[in-house]
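Reopening this one. Same input as before:
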Amino acid sequence: MRIAVLGVGAIGGVVLGALADTEADLVAVARGSGASNLEMIGLLLHTPEGAIEMIPPERFLVVDSEEGPISEQIRGTCDAAILCGKAASTPVLAQLAEEVLADGGMAISVQNGLGHPEALAHRLGRERVLGGSITHGAWRDGEGGVHWVGRGAIRLGNLDGGEPGSVASSLIEMLDAAGLQPIWSEDVQRIVWRKILLNVAINPVCAIAGVRNGAIAEVPELWGQAMAAMEEAAAVARGLGVDLGEIDLAEHLRKVVEATAENRCSMLQDVMAGRATEIDSLCGAVVERGETVGIPTPANQALHALVKGIERSGEFA
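Same output, byte for byte:
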């Protein structure tokens, strides 16, 4: 099975590095210096257990998304494409997925935020797209190394429900062999929205305050803001007809921030590095969808505005 990993940042590095231990034929799609490093020196992966794995460059084919057309060696040859890049890169990655996938190949987005599976479906058709959510924790250091700091799972499912088809089943087998803990769901909207609830609670609050995840459970003011954003997002999801299932929001949040207490969330990492964040696809998307169903979202509006202000001012933590 040939699998393309589109966007080899922190999470993409974990997915690529874990799949390197399987029999999958791999294509790594990155850009600029990231692509050059993969092609010349490979991938340095620090595992949760403290091991350091050096995946050699010959283990995968590298595509630089900033360069010209996809080579004939790769075009139309992939059975699956896993989108791991930042939210802003989705239009480019969706186009690349269309180019690298074989007829009948399937794409899955495990990105943060809303709207990514729909962007893929617009190009590929709903029957060739899987929705997904990933809870493995990772960060990337300044030297290109990927630190896999917490094991989680990859939840995935068809956009319209049902059992996995042959390609999806093969992908699940590969993800399982890689130790990425795939879990099939027949309600993909539930898994996407459950991830959004955590994203809007943790990412902007930690990015604005400049703190690690664990501070949310320790500082009452941060906890209150995180819960307000989370409760609004849950109300919007239910207003849209999403079945969130039996979920205690406070317990759900507390469990995650305690389990990832020492982590710097991706949005804080972006702010610290002076990069654009994914706030538009998180709080911004909740606000937009709240407006469509008539549900007010003042906490998400405030967090969205504050993070956008940090981005525009250039005064990064």
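So the earlier flakiness isn't reproducible anymore. For the record, The mean pLDDT is 93.
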